[in-house]
UniProtKB/TrEMBL annotation:
This is Aspartyl-tRNA(Asn)/glutamyl-tRNA(Gln) amidotransferase subunit A. PANTHER family: AMIDASE AMID-RELATED, TRANSAMIDASE. It holds the Pfam family Amidase. Residues 1-34 are annotated as: Disordered. InterPro entries: Amidase, Amidase_dom, AS_sf, TAT_signal. Gene3D superfamilies: Amidase signature (AS) domain. Residues 105-387 form the Amidase domain. One of its GO terms (molecular function) is transferase activity. It comes from the Bacteria. Keywords: Transferase.
C-alpha cells in the first residue's frame, strides 16, 4: 500500500446519505443495463457475421464529426510549473486555462525530452516535431475556444495519419501513406491534441515492439538499460511515450491485451472500451470482432478525457451505430468524498475471482493492499465471485478462433510472400489452417460464454470484476481498465517495476470502471510514480535508432507465444 495519497485537486464532496454501503441499483438503472446487455448480445452476433467481409484498408467514408461539449474538470491550477512534463493532461489544461502555461511551452518541454531520450526509449518510429510546434502556436491563439488545445499525444502507428506514413511496423505497409486520418485520431486533434509522433508497436500489432525481423526496439521506461524487460505489447511505444514523459497521453489498440498489458507494465492507466464505443475506421486491422482503440494515460481522469473526446457514433464504422449514448465519463472519473472517505456516486459490487490472490511475493502483497483500500471506499462492496464454467476455455482453446479473422484480410500478402510477415509468420499460418466449421464452433462458444458473463457474473454476482487476464473480456468485447497498484522489489540493477491489475465491466459501462479506479487513485499515489530518466550520452540527439543497448531478438516461437 502506498504511504502517500493521491492529490485531491479534483475531489468533490457528497453528503454521506447520498452514498450507500449496500450494493444495488435503482429499477431504472437495472432496466437500462438489461437493455444494454440485450443490445450487446445481438450486436456481437451481427459483428461476427460481418467479420468475413472486413477489408484490410477500407475506402474513405465521410469524415466523422468530433465529439462536442468536452469540458475541463473544476480544480486548482498549478501555480508554478517547473517541468510541464510532470503534469497530468487535466493539470496541463488547467494551467493553460489559468495562464500559467502556454501550449508552446508544454509541447516544447515534451519535445526536449524527445530530443534527449528518444534514442534510448525508441518509443516512436516517426516524429512530427515541426508540425507539433505549429499546432501548439495555433492552440495558443485559440485558447478561449478550445481549453484542451496544445496537449502533446502519441498515436500508435496503425492509426491512419493523413500524409504521414502509417506502417503498423511492418514490411507490408512500409510505404503506406494514408489519404485521411483515423476517426479517433481526428477527433483527438479536433479536441486539442497535438501529435508529436507515431508510436512503435509490435509488427502488425502481434507482439511487443520489434523490427519485422524480431529485433527488440522499444524498451520499458522503467528499465531502459535492459531491453529484455518487456514494455508490454503490442502498444509498446505509446505506453513508453507516456511513462517516459514524451507525451501526456497516447492511443493504443487492443485485440488481446495490447492496452492493458503495456499499462500494467509501465505504471499507467489504460482503458479498453466496449466494442463499438470507439471507431476503428482508419486503423490497420488485426481482428474485426476484437479490435478496440483506447487511451493510455497517467490516471483515470486523463483516460476519461481522452475517451470522451473520441467516443461516439461514426458512419464509417457500423459497430459504433445505434449504441447507448456516451455518458459523462469526465464526471465519473472525478473523485468524490463522503465524510472524509473516498466514495462512489452509485453503489457498486466489485467481484473478486477465486484466483485473484493465487499469486506470491510482491504481487500478492499489492493485491491484498488493493482489496484493503477498496474496502474503505464508501458505496463499494467486495464480493467473492465464481467464473463461468468455460472461462478457461475462452482464454485457452477457443482463443485461437481469432486467428482466421486476422489472416483473411491479409491472404493476398500470404499468397505473395511469407517473408513479408517476418518473425510472426507462424501465427498467421495458424489462421490459414483452421477450418470453417472450427471457426463457427468457436463463435458459438463465444456467444454462449458472453450470455453466461452478462447473465450471471456481471448480473447476479457483481457489477465489475477484478481480472487476472484480459483475454476473456477481449474475446467478447467487454470494457476493461488497467491501473497501477504497487511497485515490485528492487532488481539487481536498482530499478523497480510497476505492478498493476485489471478491472472489467458490463457493456457500455466505462463510466463505472472509471469511477472505481478514480476513487482508488484518490487515496493512493501509485499512478503518480514515474521512472527515473535514463543516463544518455552527452551528445545524445533526437534519433529513431538505439543508443548502446544490448540487442534482444525474438525468434518465431517466442513471437508466436506473444502474439495478441
Amino acid at each position: 500500500m502506498s504511504a502517500g495519497a493521491g492529490r485531491g485537486d479534483h475531489l468533490t464532496s457528497v453528503p454521506p446519505e447520498e452514498v450507500g454501503d449496500v450494493p444495488g441499483t435503482t429499477p431504472a438503472e437495472e432496466q437500462r443495463r438489461g437493455l444494454a446487455r440485450r443490445s450487446f448480445l445481438a450486436r456481437s452476433a451481427a459483428v461476427a457475421a460481418m467479420s468475413a467481409g472486413a477489408a484490410a484498408v477500407a475506402a474513405q467514408p465521410a469524415a466523422a464529426a468530433p465529439a462536442s461539449g468536452l469540458r475541463v474538470p473544476r480544480g486548482a491550477a498549478p501555480t508554478a510549473v517547473e517541468d510541464p512534463t510532470t503534469l497530468t493532461l487535466v493539470e496541463a489544461a488547467l494551467a493553460m486555462a489559468a495562464g500559467t502555461l502556454s501550449a508552446v511551452e508544454l509541447v516544447q518541454a515534451h519535445l526536449e525530452r524527445v530530443e534527449r531520450l528518444e534514442g534510448t526509449y525508441r518509443a516512436h518510429n516517426a516524429l512530427l516535431v515541426e508540425e507539433a510546434l505549429v499546432a501548439a502556436r495555433r492552440a495558443d491563439r485559440r485558447r478561449r475556444s478550445n481549453p484542451y488545445g496544445g496537449l502533446p499525444i502519441t498515436l500508435k502507428d496503425n492509426l491512419f495519419t493523413a500524409g504521414v506514413p502509417t506502417t503498423a511496423n511492418s514490411t507490408i505497409f512500409a510505404d503506406f501513406v494514408p489519404p485521411y486520418d483515423s476517426t479517433v485520431g481526428a477527433r483527438l486533434v479536433a479536441a486539442g491534441g497535438v501529435v508529436v509522433g507515431k508510436g512503435q508497436m509490435g509488427p502488425l500489432a502481434t507482439t511487443r515492439a520489434t523490427t519485422p525481423a524480431g529485433v527488440v526496439t522499444t524498451v520499458n521506461a522503467w528499465t531502459p538499460a535492459d531491453p529484455s524487460v518487456s514494455p508490454g505489447g503490442s502498444s509498446s511505444g505509446p505506453a513508453t511515450a507516456v511513462a517516459g514523459r514524451l507525451a501526456l497521453a497516447s492511443l493504443g489498440t487492443q485485440t488481446g491485451g495490447s492496452i492493458t498489458a503495456p499499462a500494467n507494465a509501465q505504471g499507467l492507466t489504460g482503458l479498453k472500451p466496449t466494442m463499438g464505443r470507439t471507431s476503428i475506421r482508419g486503423i490497420i486491422p488485426l481482428s474485426f470482432t476484437r479490435d478496440h482503440v483506447g487511451p493510455l494515460a497517467k490516471d483515470a481522469l486523463d483516460a476519461a478525457v481522452v475517451l470522451q473526446a473520441m467516443a461516439g457514433p461514426d458512419d464509417g464504422d457500423a459497430r459504433t451505430l445505434g449504441l447507448p449514448a456516451v455518458p459523462d465519463l469526465v464526471r465519473a472519473a472525478t473523485p468524490v468524498t463522503s465524510g472524509r472517505r473516498a466514495a462512489l456516486r452509485r453503489r457498486t459490487r466489485v467481484g473478486v475471482p477465486p484466483d485473484f490472490l493465487a499469486v506470491t511475493g510482491d504481487e500478492l502483497a499489492a493485491r491484498q493492499a488493493l482489496l484493503t483500500t477498496l474496502r474503505g471506499v464508501r458505496g463499494l462492496t467486495l464480493v467473492d465471485v465464481t467464473y463461468p464454467e468455460d472461462w478457461d476455455l475462452q482464454s485457452g482453446t477457443f482463443n485461437v478462433v481469432r486467428l482466421p479473422e486476422r489472416t483473411e484480410p491479409f491472404r493476398p500478402w500470404l499468397q505473395q510472400d511469407l517473408t513479408l510477415f517476418g518473425v510472426s509468420v507462424l501465427s498467421w499460418l495458424q489462421g490459414l489452417l483452421m477450418s470453417g466449421d472450427e471457426w463457427v464452433t468457436g463463435q458459438r462458444a463465444k456467444h454462449h460464454f458472453l450470455a453466461e458473463v452478462l447473465g450471471d457474473l456481471l448480473g447476479r454476482q457483481c457489477d465489475v470484476v477484478l481480472q487476472t487476464s484480459p483475454v476473456p473480456f477481449d474475446v467478447v468485447g467487454l470494457p476493461e481498465i488497467a491501473f497501477p497498484i504497487g511497485l515490485g522489489s528492487p532488481r539487481p540493477d536498482g530499478t523497480t517495476l510497476p505492478l498493476g491489475t485489471i478491472l472489467g465491466g458490463a457493456p457500455y459501462e466505462e463510466d463505472r470502471l472509471l469511477e472505481v479506479v478514480a476513487a482508488y487513485q484518490s487515496v493512493t499515489d501509485w499512478h503518480r510514480r514515474r521512472p527515473a530518466d535514463p543516463v544518455v550520452p552527452a551528445a545524445g540527439a533526437r534519433s529513431l535508432t538505439a543508443t548502446a543497448a544490448p540487442e534482444v531478438r525474438l525468434d518465431a516461437i517466442a513471437a508466436a507465444e506473444q502474439t495478441q
